[in-house]
Prior knowledge:
mainly alpha
Amino acid sequence: IALLSLMRSTRAPALRHAHAAWNEVVARDPWNRFAYHEVLHHLAPSAPGRGSLVEMTHFARLSAERAPYGSPLVLLPLAARVERVAHSRRSGTSEFVSAIIWREPGAAQEIDTALDRWFRADAPPRAQALADLNLLAFALTRARRTAEAAPVFRRIGRHMTRYPWNSVSDPVGTFLHWR
C-alpha cells in the first residue's frame, strides 16, 4: 500500500511496479479500502500520462460489483464521479456542466447501491468510515437527494473531511449548508 501511495505521489511512471504492488496487496488483503482508493487516484485523469476517465470508471464499477456486502468499496464509483467533476473543472468546464455528472442515469444506481450495500448494512465500523460517510453525503447532496442525506449527516455529525468537499468552491460553507 505504501508503494502504491509513493508511486502516485511521486508520479512514478513504472506501471509494471504498480501491477506488482497491486497483486501483492490483493494477495494479502483483497478488500483493502485504502489500496483501492490509491489505485483509483492512480488511474484518475489527474495522473499525468497514466490516467483516463474510462480506466478509472471501469475500475471503480468493477471493484464495487465484486465487493462483499457491507464493504465501503461500493462507494468507489462515487469517488470516481468526484474525480470526473474535478477533472472537468480543471479543464475549464462550468460548475453547472460539472453538476450534470451527478444527474446521469448511472449516478442514481451507484448511490442506491452505496446506501443499500454499505450504509444500511450491519457491517462493523471501519477506520475510514467518516471519510466514506462524507463521500456518500456529498454524492447525495450533489444529486439533490436531501431526505436520504439527512441520516448520513446525522452519523457524520460535525466531522467534515477535506475530501470530497474540497471539490466545490466553498467546502465548509457547502458542508454546513447541507448539514
